[in-house]
Amino acid sequence: MMQGEILLEIKGLKKYFNLGHGRVLKAVDNINLKIKKGETLGLVGESGCGKSTAGRTIVRLYEPTEGSLIFEGEDITGLSGSRLKPFRRKLQMIFQDPYASLNPRMTVGDIIGEALDIHKLARGAGRQERIVELLRLVGLNPEHANRFPHEFSGGQRQRVGIARALAVEPQLIVCDEPISALDVSIQAQVVNLLKELQNRLGLTYLFIAHDLSMVQYISDRVAVMYLGQVVELADSLELYAKPLHPYTKALMSAIPVADPDEAAKRERVALQGDTSGAIDPVPGCRFQPRCPVAKEICRQQEPEYREVKERHFVACHLVV
Amino acid sequence: MRPILEIKNLQVAFDTYAGEVKAVRGVSYTVNPGEAVAVVGESGCGKSVTAQTVMGLIPSPPGRVVAGQILFDGQDLLNFTERQMQGVRGNQIGMIFQDPMTSLNPTMTVGRQIAEGLRKHQSLPADQALEQAKEMLKMVGIPHPDRRLNQYPHEFSGGMRQRAMIATALACRPKLLIADEPTTALDVTIQDQIIDLMRNLQRQLGMAIVLITHDLGVVAGLCSRVVVMYAGQIMEAGPVREIYYRTQHPYTRGLLASVPKTGKERKPLVSIPGTPPDLFSPPPGCPFAPRCSHAMKVCGQLVPQEQEVSPGHRVACWLTHPLAQYRKQEVAG
User: Fold this and answer.
1) Alpha-carbon span A250 to A268, nearest angstrom
2) C-alpha separations of A59 from A10, A89, A92, A204 in Å
3) How far apart are CA B139 and CA B135, in angstroms?
4) Is B189 within 8 Å of A250 when comparing Cβ atoms?
5) Cβ of B306: how many Cβ atoms within 10 Å?
6) I need a surface site. Which of A124, A139, B144, B185 has the fewest CB within 10 A?
7) Which ipTM value was assigned to this complex?
8) Is B162 left (phi over 0), alpha (psi -120 to 50) or beta?
9) What is the spatial distance between Cα B264 and Cα A255, in angstroms, rounded to a whole number?
10) Nearest CA to A208 among A183, A230, A192, A239?
């Protein structure tokens, strides 16, 4: 699975927001990632690090400021209108808030059916059949098609969101914090569903979340973002066992462990302050003001993002 | 030692157009002075309603205390008048909430908000109260307290706002702090800082904490006892190590199993099927029975009585009944 071909290549992706008065928010600042067919790539970071903006830019909900998106060998960055539409079908998204991302005035059947209509995938009886099939696929009942979103619980709504994304038979699904609005026992249900669907349908996921333990659980590889840049990327188990970047180390040590004995003896990397400065990044490494081991070079030069071990990338001067 | 807070058989209901919602259905727990107790459960389990009832913050109507007692320092808070409650809130019991942005007053400087309680409860003059507010900001680890005092909440980051709210809640040195999901809206690194701060302040000031959360990870690092709630009732309660290492209730076990462990090989994530019951018409018997993989016939019919399985460790589950020993071995094996 890991050696597979590349489904989407993200090259030098930038997304800047103009705030007026000459100020620019560099939400995503030069990201390079390759997403392989059939894998789950996790994207983690604190709020404001640009992970959601990255996800939205990748599915072209935002126009990239710079850089290119290459889907199955074809550059889709400049496409629009009818030429973009076939790719819209292949790239879908699941949103964080299952309350805000479903139209309250449409029945669940119509929400799912709308996707079929737009891409002219099914009509009449076939459309109805497909809706029932999709509802079953995500663990809902066919009768649910006639109900409205407010009649469902959060977990069920998230299933509707998944069914809508699956309706157009996508290849890549960007999951933007799909479980963070859900209760613990429901989170596991949705994650298990996503995994099962991946196995059955051969889906590729970009899984964006701030819940590090869940990301590790679902992802094959994980990328860590800090202020618009990817600072570390490695196989999921490797990253959690041997994090190299000081920011990743601090993040890992801050994960609360549901085990009182382990919580008591755990070594923690205290991190001062919080993320700020996507508007006026400091010179050198962006993490340097909060970094417990920063040296002179970190204040002067931006570290290069490089492969330090096989399949383990990091952007830090101090990692040899 | 007399507990600082003793909740006895509390029942709270809300009258709605669709009928009566029984949000809290007979909850009892105690908190000793200086102790941190966690109340854990999913949304709608009644953990926040219980805490808001302690603070006298349930709007009535539609809310209604049906039965029970809330003894704070030996006195029943449910008999207090609103005026008496105002002397308790923010003075003897402090409370912090999940979302610091909506709980702080956006039109008042942070300094004045912290000073407000001191001026009201301790009748301090404005300048002294502000001076003490500055001390509080320093205590909760906010840099440049002089400057921060005169800023508004929107000028603070999320973590800083939560620190400011803690400063407000602790200004009058309450004996009890109720923290309702204090870190849910925060990033992990900031969450870590806030939990650390709460742990230090608890030791420094000797106050008791009731931590309301759904995150069993946060609990493990801060609390010495845990109360697990489901559908308005207590499923299991006991010392933290008992709950984590000698889990008795299938719901607690399910909660613990649905949190993935990092750094370990991936075991399949155990999810609890179904959703919590509708509290308009709670099921007869154990509320968890419809979702429980070990449910027996009796579970759907009769409410299990609480049993003490070891000192301080209470469980409400039919599996702890002597007649269910055989079944229980099956479950454990």
Assistant:
1) 7
2) 11, 10, 7, 13
3) 6
4) yes
5) 17
6) A124
7) 0.78
8) alpha
9) 14
10) A230
Record: contact A254-B256, CB cut-off 8 A: no
Interhelix angle A154-166/A108-118, rounded to 10 degrees, is 20
Are the C-beta atoms of residues A258 and B216 closer than 8 Å to each other? yes
The pLDDT-based confidence of A48 (bands split at 50, 70, 90) is confident
Mutate to test the interface with A, among B45, B228, B275, B278 (most CBs of A within 10 A): B275
pTM higher than the cut 0.90: no
Is A249 contained in some domain?
no
CATH code (residue A216): 3.40.50.300
**In the structure, what pLDDT confidence band is assigned to residue A3 with cuts at 50, 70 and 90?**
low
Q: What is the DSSP letter of A35?
A: E
Pick from B187, B196, B259: which is nearest to A210 by CB?
A: B187
Closest-CA residue of chain B to A191? B269
Q: pLDDT confidence of B158, banded at 50, 70, 90? A: confident
Q: What is the pLDDT of residues A252-288, one digit of tens each?
A: 888 888 888 888 887 777 777 666 656 777 788 989 8
**A166 touches A196 (CB < 8 A):** no
* Cβ under 8 Å to A: B residues 186-215: 187-193, 195-196, 214-215
Q: Of the candidates A71, A29, A68, which has an alpha carbon nearest to the alpha carbon of residue A315? A: A29
* Contact check, Cβ <8 Å, A214/B260: yes
How far away is chain A from the Cα of B259, in angstroms, using its nearest Cα? 7
User: Does A311 reside within a domain?
Assistant: no
Question: Given A191, A255, A275, which is nearest B262 (Cβ)?
Answer: A255
pLDDT tens for residues B244-253?
999 999 999 9
Can you read off the two tokens belonging to residue A275?
């993320």
Q: Is B238 helix (H, G, I), strand (E, B) or coil?
A: strand
Instruction: Note whether residue A202 is domain-resident.
Output: yes
Q: Is B49 helix (H, G, I), strand (E, B) or coil?
A: helix
In a domain, A1, yes or no: no
CA-CA-CA-CA torsion sign (A107, A108, A111, A112):
negative
- A81-120 b/e (C-beta count within 10 Å ≥ 16 → b): eeeeeebbbbbbbbbbbbeebbeeeebbbebbbebbeeee
Number of structural domains in chain A = 1
Range of the domain at A72: 6-242
Find out whether B121 and B174 touch, Cβ atoms under 8 Å: no
* Coil vs helix vs strand at B209: strand
- In the chain, the amino acid numbered A80 is S
State whether residue B268 sits within 8 Å of chain A by CB. yes
User: Which of B269, B278, B293 to mutate against chain A (most A CBs within 10 Å)?
Assistant: B269
> What does the alpha-carbon distance between residue B187 and residue A225 come to, in Å, rounded to a whole number?
13
Bridge-partner residues for B65, per DSSP?
B12
Pairing of strands A312-315, B5-16: unpaired
- Cβ B258–A187 below 8 Å, yes or no? yes
- The SS3 of residue A76 is coil
